[in-house]
Design a protein that fits this description.
Length: 59
């Protein structure tokens, strides 16, 4: 596999490709975890409609 970086051609060996794909998969995995965490926190912060009704009834 030949990759063009600027004006320099870099020949990637199988070992380099392995490390590159391992890093890409790891990065993608951590991005996925971050997105899921943000979604969970957004759901957690939304008020529960049942609790809102109970609060209004108590007042």
């Amino acid at each position: 596999m030949v990759q063009l970086l600027g004006s320099i051609l870099v020949l990637m060996t199988y070992r380099a490709k392995g490390w590159f794909f391992a890093a890409a998969i790891s990065f993608s995995f951590w991005v996925l975890i971050a997105l899921v965490s943000v979604e969970i926190m957004m759901q957690w912060e939304q008020p529960n409609p049942i609790e809102e009704i109970a609060d209004e009834a108590a007042v």
